[in-house]
């Protein structure tokens, strides 16, 4: 097997802080959508995450792992509820704000549903770790009190280590699948980056040249999350 399929040296389980690179925050803020669109995307992403992870939990054994995965789903639901409350406080309807993002988000997650429960857990770990980093960066880049609340709603209700613990146990029990999961993870990351571009894409930035630099730190954080699993990113 070629070297890029090897398992990396496993790092400790992450409890990563919020995105805090000033350059990244400023650049993302310049390219961010208006607040209403941001909140609509964020609210529906968390609802979709809740649904996706709940489905994954149903296909997962043993019971301990099902319980942990369900806890991750509950965290996403809390974020969704907090953001819906923020939308309502602005005088907007959460359903109307989310509606433009339903079809695209659902289509994105549909193509990432793996054939095995472990692939679904890895997808959730990658997709929502990455997207939450993007959403936090945009919120912090707003430089406003509401922006700080939006970021806090995400960071106070996320724990990447929960899903990492499940994945580590499953990989240790089935090491022969590590290289397959590494490949799956790369596919998931590529699709997730494309999806995330729409959150911050400048309509005039056809080639994506202004968007690419803002993902540098976020991709680095993804690599650290994969290091925790002992998988190459």
Features:
single chain, 233 residues, mainly alpha, Ferritin, disordered N terminus
List the helices and strands and how they pair.
Elements (H helix, E strand, L loop, with lengths): L21 H10 L3 H24 L4 H27 L4 H5 L3 H9 L6 H25 L3 H11 L4 H14 L4 H23 L15 H14 L4
Helix pairs in contact: 1-6, 2-3, 2-5, 2-6, 6-7, 6-8, 6-9, 6-10
Overview of this protein structure:
The chain has helices spanning 22-31, 35-58, 63-89, 94-98, 102-110, 117-141, 145-155, 160-173, 178-200, 216-229. The protein is 70% helix and 0% strand. The longest helix is centred in the N-terminal third of the chain and has 27 residues, at 63-89. It has a single domain (3-229), classed as Up-down Bundle (Ferritin), CATH 1.20.1260. It has ten helices and no strands. The chain starts with 21 loop residues before the first helix and ends with a helix. The protein is an all-alpha fold and 233 residues long.
Overall outline: globular
Number of helices: 10
Radius of gyration: 17 Å
CATH topology: Ferritin
Query: What would CATH call the architecture?
Result: Up-down Bundle
Helix content: 55-70%
Strand count: 0
**Alpha-carbon distance between the two ends:** 16 Å
Question: Quick one: CATH superfamily?
Answer: Ferritin, core subunit, four-helix bundle
How many structural domains in the coordinates? 1
| Low-confidence runs | 1-8, 13-26
Protein name: Ferritin-like domain-containing protein
Biased composition (Polar residues): 10-21
Domain Ferritin-like: 38-202
Region (Disordered): 1-21
